[in-house]
Amino acid sequence: MQLHIKHSTTELANRISKALITSSNHQKSIPPLKWTPLLEQTLHGLAFRNSLSPQLVSRVIDPFLINHHSLALGFFNWAAQQPGFTHTSISYQSILKSLSVSRQFNTVDKLMKEIKMQKIVLSASAYRSVIASHLSGQKALSAFSVFSDVRWMICEIGVDICNALLAGLSSYGHLGNARQVFDEMLLRGVRVTTLGFGVFIWRFCGNSELGDVLMFIDDVKRQVSQRVNGSVVALLVVHGLCFAGRVDEAVSVLDVLRKKDCKPDFMAYRAVAEALRETGNVAEVEKVLKMKRKLGVSPRGSDYRDFIFQLISERLVCEARDIGEVIVSGNFPIEDDVLNALIGSVSAEDPSSALRFFKYLVEKDRLPTLLTFTNLSRNLCRHGKHAELVEVSKTLSGKAYFVDIERYNIMVSFFCKAGKVKEAYEVLQEMKKKGWGPDIVSYNSVMEACCRENMVRPAKRLWDEMFANGCEADLRTYNILISKFVEIGQVKEANGLFCHMLEKRVEPNATTYVFLLKGLCQENEVVTGLEVFKKSFEQDAEMARTLLGKFILYLCKKGHFIAASSLVRDYNSTIGNSESNMILLKCLADAGEVPLAIEHIKMIGKMSPPMMHELRTGFLSSLSSPSKPQPILEIIQVIETLQLNHAPSE
Fold first, then answer.
1. What value does the CA radius of gyration of the chain take, rounded to a whole number of Å?
2. pLDDT tens-digit map of 242-277
């Protein structure tokens, strides 16, 4: 019986979610998968009120709406408004999971306050999900706030999340909060890891007594279950002290750390020696280097590899960068995948450091992966480092990196995004010489860049060159040029391209028609515009339906009211609807063309009497903020009169 109930709940949940998704995708003028009050009618139509329960709400949201947070939250709120319904922990957990996945932090915070006020206790997995979401969104204090309310559940929340929270708070300088998490972990026996304790002790060294630092290390070492890498901790301690200018303490702590089973490796000794070198203390530098040769151990690449990947996965990019720079500056072993990860992640925040990692990689006669090259190029563009982008590509070109059309196209694409059109065109010529295209992707990138930079003549020459090289234009090519020609008023050329694409059997899309119809109306080419619209209708009636409203607006903006009215009338029986008629009538009312509006309304009354009610409702709602209320009142009066005339006699 229980299995049957569960099966029925799942089936009903599936039906509800499908109905919401389908209805939301068919809402006009509203983005798909977005909740609106109209969806309440969909829910009422399913007639499942007697089956509504927190379990059903939970099942609808998770798994069916888990990635559609707007629908999930709308359904959750709708359920709360139903008579006799109250959310419980199970429904709260599902909505929090959906909102956490989509990082809707403000809504999550609001719901967490509700849960706290109602004294509802969630599962550890729910708190874990919320804390992880806040940390991924770099909201460490919000994550700590959630943790503080349920710190008694710390063992269930788990080792990974607690250490991630400890590291995140420490990274952002919230050391007081981090200390609370650390103390709670020790008290409850939650194992600390190299990630959590390492970042905490690293940042704690900056302005804390050395005795406290060593005390914390002792506390961790006493943990039976601890898995902290002593050599990594030693490096982080001396690095933190040196960064804070406490170089003498860094020298003295080396031997202390070794005795505490945190044996400094060559990297730790070198970090201290370099800090001393900057102070000009040559004698102390030699002393530390002798200690390194006598007592130091060779760093284990796998230890730092794992640590760096953990830092990157927790979005602690600055810490990953600093460790990477210690390794690279000392020419210590580092694997290619670690360098690639550092280049890609660090370039998002610190492109200069990323370029140093890139140069180190290339100097070792190794090359970045295609993903790394793409990420580095994208971030250099984003930070405006355009000259550096060109330099990176030149360096790689000299290393025979570009061995296929895919790699060349990535280089061309980012040159174009950076506005380096000349350099992008030179790459096209290089591609031809080496027999790697160019293909239509290459040409489109450069064509678009030319148009963006108002280089129309070079774009036209590129068009000719493309066909001369046997490369046929695609839809994107035509749209790039048609939109640019319309923008600069060369509508005749735009229409010529439209005819050309039809001859070449390249099917236009809505974007093509929107650009061209707008341009033709701007140049008062109404007849041609009507012919183009007719082609869109013949090609795809549903697409023409979406274009109709825009075409009406373009015509009315240039004063072609009669043509707009005729357009709506001609297509009223096929793709016309209340929305297109409403657009026309509002344009006529705003322009004071009331007689023409009345004539159009009478035509609708004869052709589509049921539409009169929708138009009346639309105009009544528009009365709240009309610039010219009198024409609208006249139109409403005419509609009401026609409705009375068409009403059945009793």
1. 34
2. 999 999 999 999 999 999 989 999 999 999 999 999
